[in-house]
Protein: DUF4852 domain-containing protein
Amino acid sequence: MLQFHKSAFLWRYLICSGVAALALHPLASKTAAAETATFAHSRHHNVEIDFADPAARCAATDLHLKMAITPESHDIGAVEQQIHLANALGRKLATDHQCAAVQSVDIAVIQNGSEARHLQATKGTNWQFAEVAASQPAPQAQPSPPLPPVPDALGAAAVTVPPAPAIDAPAPAAVPAQAQDAAPPAPPPPPVVLPEGYMGLLALLVRHNPALLDNENIQACWARHAFQRDFFAAQGNEFRKHEVENRARTDLAQISQQIPAGTLQANLAVRLGEYDFKQSSFPVALNGNVLTLSSTCDMSDTTVPGQVGLKLGETAPTFRLPMPAAEAEQFLKQRTRFGFINREMMAILTFHVEDSQLGKMTDSTPQPVALTHVKIYSDTDKTSLLADIGPDALENMRKAQDAAKAAQQAKEAAQQQAENRRRMAERVQNASRSEKLAMWVGQNTRGFNAPDLDTIRNVRARAMMQGAPVDAILLVQADGSGRAQVPTKWPGKLNLTTPKDQPALSSGTWYLVQGPVSVPEKGDFPAAEMTVQTLHACQQDQCKDAEDPQALLAALQPTVTP
Structure:
């Protein structure tokens, strides 16, 4: 944590605290001037930040400081750590009214007695520090009168602040061409390690929307993942916590740009199926076709979903581990302990997520993704690779599985259709005459229940009681020809109207008809009206020919569906 000391408050503290002050500040008995030159102190890093000009302090517009790093300092050797510390100092400087006149700050980093670098920031950049290039001289501190001697009341001797060492250094000696040619080539950069599971998804979301980097909850989540030890050690210390989160922000920004666009990996425990002797392989099937990635962080205050479902096609994919039978038997023996076969294995699944899908991901709706690579290991440590299935093999696997699924569905549909036809034949054989006649036009209107002929009396009664048209199946004989309001000889008091897609009625012909029947409310026993939806023209009177079960079954076969 950074502690900022003002000289006036420090003097009060030393004067009023007596022995306690000396115990807390052992250097005060030797040099009070050195205390008054201290601008800040980081207890966590054990680093002093002093005024380069103790007399001027914050009075000048260009403030010059020195960051003294000693062997006793902690976690501050890297320039990134020094910049994080300087940025924390800058935020304090922005709120210090005593330093309101300061427009720029230069910090000379002193490591083990020698000047290592300069860090500079300006008020216009909101005190965000950056390392100064070696060729760029740091601004010189304004001259100021010497520090007045400190009274002897506290027994402290005055100490003069030595001038900062010169920035300019002699140019390095030229390297002979032979030496340059003999230099070994630079090692290749290490491969990018893709974050897996939800953290990999978070990196993709940041790549898609860099504004997420500024969300403190996302920074904390990444810090918990990437810098777990430092993250928990910084709890309760806002400066250390801020430093760790800034490191996490930088790391997440770099990772999100390094990972291939749209590439996501996930570790998954899978189970080895029973050996398939026909295909000489072990099947490894996923438990379902939706993979859920969940966060261990609280994402309620962000626009990022806390969990996301990835849909891997319409069915759960099954992978194959080819292995001869003899080798497969030995493989299972090696995994057998106390009579139990350990079939648990680890798989790394690689997906491709379209950029357009990243903005649509929610907690509730799974997003379809393409599975592009699968690696299956025999152990949880992923040291023994059993199968490496690339994009081409996965595509062939999907085609084979789709073909097998279609064949199975066709087989089941044929079996169901055969069963339906058997049931239909049985029903026709056992049907009564009324049911057989009705089945010519009413099979699709009553489900699997056998339809039956209605009587005009019952139909008229139901229509009058309900006050609306009622569906009916009737045996009729036309007493005229045409399509509109054709009267009937049988049963009489019934007019028929047929649609254009049905044949016109012929006088004297017997028909089986189906459709809604309505009864007019006015008049003295008016004729009922039927709008024919389905009709069957019979060849014999009273439709005797329609009683033939074989003819009926042949007519019904095309309508039987699985």
Q: What stands out?
A: The longest strand covers residues 263-272. Confidence is low (pLDDT under 50) at residues 1-36, 134-173.
